[in-house]
Every structure is written in C-alpha cells, then in structure tokens.
C-alpha cells in the first residue's frame, strides 16, 4: 500500500443557492489518502462535482465511482464555513463527505418524517436513458429532478405506449440501504415491454440505474422505521408517431420519493367495495403487465367508491363476474383456517412481487397455499382478507361490501395470519433479520 499523503485539489465550482442563482466562485478541497488511488480519485471528483454544480448531466459510472471512493475512505472533503448555499442545495452527497468535526451536508432532508403519507415529494435527481426502436439502451445519465419534454405526437401520449414499475429502498438501523427484490422488477418490466412492443433496458442496466438513482438521492431515504424511498421506473414511447405504430424512440426514466403508508388508514383495516359493473382487465388484454393504461381505467370506479366512504374497489372477472381479481393497485388474499388463497395469475392479474414473496413466506411457515379461482361467496366467508403490493406491503381488510351487503371481519388491525406474514416480510425488507431468501440488495 502506498504511503498516506494529502492532495489539495482546488477546482473552481459555481455555488448555487436555493433560488438557483449563481452566488460566487468557490474552491473545493479534496483529499486522497492513498497514493496509488490519487489519479482515479481526482479523475472522478473533478468532472463530477463540476457537472453537479453546473446542472449538467452526470453519467452513472462517475457517481458510482465517487460514492465508492468516499465510502471506502479514499476521499474526504472539507468545507469552508461560507459553503452554506452549497450545503443546502447539494446535501444528497452528504453521507460520505465528512470534515473533522461535522458533515459537510445534512445526512437527511429537512422534512417531517413522521407524517410522510403517500404523495410525491420532489427529490434531487432522476435518471434518464434513451434508445431508438430496434436498438439497445447503452448508457444513462443523472439529471436534476424536474419536468421533461415530450413531442405532442409521442407514442406514450397518443397511444399509451408506456409501462412503470414500483419498488422501495429501506434504511436499516445501522444506516445501510437495502433494495427489495429489484431483479424481479427488471424482469417484469422486460415482460411488459415485450407485450407492448417496446425496447427495454437489460436486467443489469435496470439494476445499475436503480442503484445510481437511490445513491444520488440518499438523503431522502427515511430514517429507520419512518417509511421508505419509493422508486418509480418508467419506460415510455417518447418518439413522435402519428399513425398507430410503435414509437421510434424510447425513454427509460427513474424518479424517487420518500413515502409512508399508502392508505390514509395506515395499518388500520381498509374497507373495500366489490365492483360489479366496471372491470379492470379482460382476457387477452394487458391486465397481466404494468402498463399505464391499466390504472387510468380504474379511476372512475375508485373515485365513486371513495366518495361513498370506501378505501378502494375490488374487481371481479369480466367473463363470469363472480371470481375475484384484484383491487385498483393491489393483489388480494383470503384466509380460511390454515389455507391461504389468492387469485391465479392468468393474464388479467398483475404478478405482484409482494404477492410472490408472501406465497414463498407462507409456504415456509407451514400454510397451505392456493392460487386459484376464488368466488365472491368465499371472500365473504373468509376468516381474514388482506391486500398486498409494493406501496402497501400488506393492508388488512376490515370489511367487504357486495351488492349492498356488508361483511365485517371483526379485526382492529392485522389478523393472525396477516400479522405473521407482514412481520416476516418487513423484517427482511428493513434488515431486522437475516435474509435467508436472498431477496435484498445492499447498496
């Protein structure tokens, strides 16, 4: 190992205040502690910091390199006391940047972590990657979070050629960051892209993009037990097309937002209305992939139900109108004795990643697990009912109303089975227990 030495790399950087006005030129001091790593350190820091401050795109390899250098202790940065505006604006890189007495930038964003709810809170950066139809995605870049430009004739705006995903990053008690089953999201996006005739990032590109986006917005990851960083990858036909055809260009974009509970009830039981007239999906359609049009189609029924005091809508199949499918954005499970049942995935129901995880955990815990047709009558006679999804994880159902008949499950919170499985899933997600399933990815 080379001897320790102090390298004073002073480079001019434009410092912005919150109003994005240039204040003045300042110098930024970087130290390298290992002689043989000095060249790599300086090469990574200089262009990256310059791009961050000037608002130019930052390529993902650079920020990952920078994060590794700071995290490994190869680099330390110190700030003069007059770096107040830099401190406020660029606190996403705070975690690895330490002075002798304090962090350069705040480790966490200054928001009310106890009252997050599930709503968009603009963060620092988003990830963007593009490619032409028939070609492969190559590299992506970080941009400051903000509006994007789309041609009025883009495929996503005119013909709904778009998909999205949803996953979360959690902060452990020791400060480490965990992703929950991101590869499953990448595979589901790929299946959806094939159905929608879209170019798609590879699994590795998806994973790298997610990691880069999360690390660049690290200060927005809630403290342990306060919520999670919701990650929203989008794949859209961004190219202009007038006639009905696949778009000539595709954009892959990821943005993030800190979130709390999805339903306003929190972990209290929700009340569902079974919808008997409108349907979410039809056989042969796109109900089994996460296309954007699936969700716009449920808004009418959902709004009507919420106006009557219900939490959400539970949909039936469109052919027989007697078998359960799913809620507006959640899969559904019923419990009867030691049997845990959920509607089978046969093209009209989204193959939820939380759903899949619950099935695996339930089998390990000794429950009899069934994926099959479930009638409304079975739903009304169940011991427990709960909904599942990335946003909600597990949400207990307190009552079901069908054709004017309301059935209550007599619980104030989680039922016995839902509580057991919820504890197992969230303990893995938040790093409270050893992940014997191999589901989490540490950043």
Please tell me about this protein's structure:
The protein is α+β, with helices and mostly antiparallel strands. 25% of the residues lie in helices and 28% in strands. The chain is built from 11 helices and 21 strands. The strands form 3 sheets. Strands 3, 5, 6, 7, 8, 9, 10, 11 and 21 form a 9-stranded antiparallel β-sheet that branches. A hairpin with a 2-residue loop joins strand 19 and strand 20. Helix 1 crosses helix 2, helix 2 crosses helix 6 and helix 5 crosses helix 6. The longest helix is centred in the N-terminal third of the chain and has 17 residues. The N terminus is likely disordered.
Which characteristics define this entry?
25% helix, nine-stranded mixed beta sheet, alpha+beta
CA gyration radius, whole angstroms: 24 Å
DSSP strand tally:
21
- The SS-based structural class is alpha+beta
* Total helical segments: 11
Principal-axes shape call: globular
The multimeric state of the shown protein is single chain
Helix content: 25-40%
Question: In angstroms, what separates the terminal alpha carbons?
Answer: 26 Å
Architecture blueprint of SSEs:
Blueprint: E1 11-16, E2 22-32, H1 38-54, E3 58-59, H2 60-71, E4 75-78, H3 84-89, E5 125-132, E6 140-144, H4 155-159, E7 162-164, E8 167-171, E9 177-180, H5 182-195, H6 203-216, E10 228-237, E11 249-259, E12 270-275, H7 293-296, H8 299-307, E13 312-316, E14 324-327, E15 331-336, E16 339-343, H9 353-364, E17 368-372, H10 376-380, E18 384-389, E19 393-402, E20 405-408, H11 416-429, E21 440-442
Parallel strand pairs: 12-13, 12-19, 16-17
Antiparallel strand pairs: 1-2, 2-4, 3-6, 5-6, 5-11, 7-10, 8-9, 8-10, 9-21, 10-11, 13-14, 15-16, 15-18, 18-19, 19-20
Helix pairs in contact: 1-2, 2-6, 5-6, 9-11
């Amino acid at each position: 190992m080379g001897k320790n030495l102090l390298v004073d790399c002073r480079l001019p950087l434009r410092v912005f205040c919150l109003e994005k006005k240039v204040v003045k030129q300042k110098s930024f001091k970087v130290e390298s502690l290992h002689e043989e790593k000095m060249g790599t350190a300086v090469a990574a820091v200089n262009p990256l910091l310059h791009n961050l401050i000037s608002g130019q795109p930052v390529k993902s390899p650079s920020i990952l390199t920078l994060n590794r250098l700071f995290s490994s202790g190869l680099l330390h940065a110190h700030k003069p006391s007059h770096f107040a505006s830099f401190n406020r604006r660029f606190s996403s890189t705070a975690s690895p940047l330490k002075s002798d007495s304090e962090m350069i930038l705040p480790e966490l964003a200054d928001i009310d972590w106890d009252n997050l709810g599930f709503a968009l809170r603009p963060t620092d950066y988003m990830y963007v990657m593009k490619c032409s139809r028939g070609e492969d995605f190559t590299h992506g870049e970080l941009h400051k979070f903000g509006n994007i430009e789309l041609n009025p004739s883009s495929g996503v705006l005119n013909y709904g050629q778009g998909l999205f995903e949803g996953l979360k990053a959690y902060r452990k008690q020791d400060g480490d960051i965990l992703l929950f089953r991101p590869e499953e999201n990448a595979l589901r996006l790929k299946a959806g892209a094939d159905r929608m005739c879209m170019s798609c990032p590879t699994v590795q590109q998806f994973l790298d993009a997610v990691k880069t986006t999360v690390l660049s917005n690290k200060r927005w990851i809630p403290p342990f037990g306060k919520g999670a960083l919701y990650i929203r990858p989008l794949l859209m036909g961004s190219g202009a097309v007038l006639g009905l055809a696949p778009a000539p260009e595709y954009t892959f974009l990821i943005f993030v937002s800190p979130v709390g509970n999805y339903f306003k009830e929190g972990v209290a039981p929700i009340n569902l209305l079974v919808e008997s007239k409108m349907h979410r999906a039809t056989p042969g359609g796109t109900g089994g992939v996460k296309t954007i049009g699936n969700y716009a189609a449920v808004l009418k029924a959902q709004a009507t139900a919420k106006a009557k005091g219900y939490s959400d809508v539970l949909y039936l199949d469109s052919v027989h109108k007697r078998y359960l499918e799913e809620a507006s954005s959640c899969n559904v499970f019923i419990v009867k004795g030691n049997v845990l049942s959920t509607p089978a995935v046969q093209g009209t129901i989204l193959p939820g990643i939380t759903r899949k995880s619950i099935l695996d955990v339930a089998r390990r815990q000794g429950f009899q697990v069934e994926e099959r047709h479930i009638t409304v009558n079975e739903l009304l006679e169940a011991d427990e009912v709960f909904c599942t999804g990335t946003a909600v994880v597990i949400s207990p159902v307190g009552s079901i109303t069908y054709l004017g008949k309301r059935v209550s499950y007599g619980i104030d919170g989680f039922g016995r089975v839902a509580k057991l499985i919820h504890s197992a899933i969230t303990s893995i997600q938040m790093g409270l227990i050893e992940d014997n399933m191999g589901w989490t990815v540490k950043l």
